[in-house]
Automatic annotation (TrEMBL):
<dbReference type="InterPro" id="IPR050725">
    <property type="entry name" value="CysQ/Inositol_MonoPase"/>
</dbReference>
<dbReference type="GO" id="GO:0046854">
    <property type="term" value="P:phosphatidylinositol phosphate biosynthetic process"/>
</dbReference>
<protein>
    <recommendedName>
        <fullName>inositol-phosphate phosphatase</fullName>
        <ecNumber>3.1.3.25</ecNumber>
    </recommendedName>
</protein>
<keyword id="KW-0460">Magnesium</keyword>
<keyword id="KW-0479">Metal-binding</keyword>
<dbReference type="GO" id="GO:0052834">
    <property type="term" value="F:inositol monophosphate phosphatase activity"/>
</dbReference>
<dbReference type="GO" id="GO:0046872">
    <property type="term" value="F:metal ion binding"/>
</dbReference>
<feature type="binding site">
    <location>
        <position position="67"/>
    </location>
    <ligand>
        <name>Mg(2+)</name>
    </ligand>
</feature>
<dbReference type="InterPro" id="IPR020550">
    <property type="entry name" value="Inositol_monophosphatase_CS"/>
</dbReference>
<feature type="binding site">
    <location>
        <position position="110"/>
    </location>
    <ligand>
        <name>Mg(2+)</name>
    </ligand>
</feature>
<feature type="binding site">
    <location>
        <position position="244"/>
    </location>
    <ligand>
        <name>Mg(2+)</name>
    </ligand>
</feature>
<feature type="binding site">
    <location>
        <position position="109"/>
    </location>
    <ligand>
        <name>Mg(2+)</name>
    </ligand>
</feature>
<dbReference type="GO" id="GO:0008441">
    <property type="term" value="F:3'(2'),5'-bisphosphate nucleotidase activity"/>
</dbReference>
<dbReference type="InterPro" id="IPR020583">
    <property type="entry name" value="Inositol_monoP_metal-BS"/>
</dbReference>
<dbReference type="InterPro" id="IPR000760">
    <property type="entry name" value="Inositol_monophosphatase-like"/>
</dbReference>
<dbReference type="GO" id="GO:0000103">
    <property type="term" value="P:sulfate assimilation"/>
</dbReference>
<feature type="binding site">
    <location>
        <position position="107"/>
    </location>
    <ligand>
        <name>Mg(2+)</name>
    </ligand>
</feature>
Length: 302
């Protein structure tokens, strides 16, 4: 049996991501850019606390896995700038999350570094819903990525597709979102600004295409750039977690994109170990070229 998200789950993901995004814009105004550490911590913790409270109210009984709700984080950091000297709300305990039917996987602030840099627009809020789909696994069924500084939210919808919400001109306007195909002979590949994997440079040299590497912060902003046609692919390896990709992958798949590990295997979520260190997102017509190129680079290095 395949379990779908109900219509409301898509709306909840989009509303919560957009609202956390508005809150983060206010945090930037309130804290300013002079102390980057204070701005990052305040943003991380305020967005996390908002999402935990909103999910508890809107979806009581659902489990939550948030970047900021890990015990290592929740145990050590007081609520930055909020006046309350207490640790952030913790995630659902692993034993409960791993047997739950519904798990929200959220990154309250993806691209924390870029959030703390004045003028940068490449940071995001991620809200995804994973649902159990049989006894031994499940899948992402809804997701939203807010790009608050760009006035955009990319989200799944109840038809099984994706849409783009523009909130910059009064009432939000929605349009269908489909991943565009790349121009013939060219490929723009988004990479991390601060941790671009070395093998992507080798991949660029090896492909028989005019390749441009485009540094962008935040996994959500990079995958959104693929869906918006600003780049053609996102390739990453060397480390990442489920919350960094769950919501953008939910939207990307609904928008017709290819999303997998760099060896072509499936991206699986709600695992005991939330590490999900590598990812490829692109138009389906580029997938085999990129997967073959990545394999060749890997073989040449080993
Ligand atoms: N090697 C690595 N190990 C762990 N996390 C990584 C990583 N490279 C990127 N990430 C995470 O992936 C997100 C996007 O990174 P980047 O902008 O460099 O592409 C960031 O999330 P956060 O900003 O939520 O911490 C970052 O922490
Ligand atoms: Mg992240």
């Amino acid at each position: 049996m395949t379990v779908q998200a109900v219509a409301d789950d898509h709306a909840v993901a989009a509303e919560l991501a957009a609202e956390a995004g508005r809150l983060l814009l206010n945090v930037r105004d309130e804290v300013g850019f002079a102390d980057a550490r204070a701005l990052k911590d305040t943003g991380d913790v305020r967005a996390h606390e908002y999402l935990m409270a909103a999910l508890a109210e809107r979806c009581p009984g659902d489990a939550v896995l948030s970047e900021e709700g890990r015990s290592a984080v929740a145990g050590k950091r007081a609520v930055a700038g909020g006046g309350a000297d207490r640790a952030p709300t913790r995630n659902t305990a692993d034993a409960e999350r791993l047997t739950a039917d519904r798990v929200w996987i959220v990154d309250p602030l993806d691209g924390t570094r870029e959030f703390s840099e004045e003028g940068r627009r490449d940071w995001a809020v991620h809200v995804a819903l994973w649902r159990r789909d049989g006894s031994d696994g499940g899948r992402l069924v809804a997701g939203a990525v807010a790009l608050p500084a760009q006035g955009l939210t990319l989200r799944t919808d109840a038809t099984g597709g994706a849409c783009l919400v523009r909130a910059d001109a009064g009432q939000p306007a929605e349009a269908a979102l489909r991943v565009p195909s790349p121009d013939a002979g060219k490929l723009r590949i988004a990479v991390s600004r601060t941790r671009p994997p070395e093998f992507v440079r080798r991949l660029a040299e090896r492909l028989d295409l005019d390749v441009e590497l485009v540094p962008i912060g935040s996994a959500g902003a990079k995958i959104s750039a693929v869906l918006l046609g600003e780049v053609d692919a996102y390739v990453h390896a060397g480390g990442q977690y489920e919350w960094d990709s769950a919501a953008p992958v939910a939207v990307a798949v609904a928008a017709g994109a290819h999303a997998s590990r760099v060896d072509g295997s499936a991206l699986n979520y709600n695992r005991k170990d939330p590490r999900l260190p590598d990812i490829l997102v692109c138009h389906p017509t580029s997938a085999s070229t990129l997967l073959t190129g990545i394999r060749d680079v890997h073989d040449a290095l080993s």
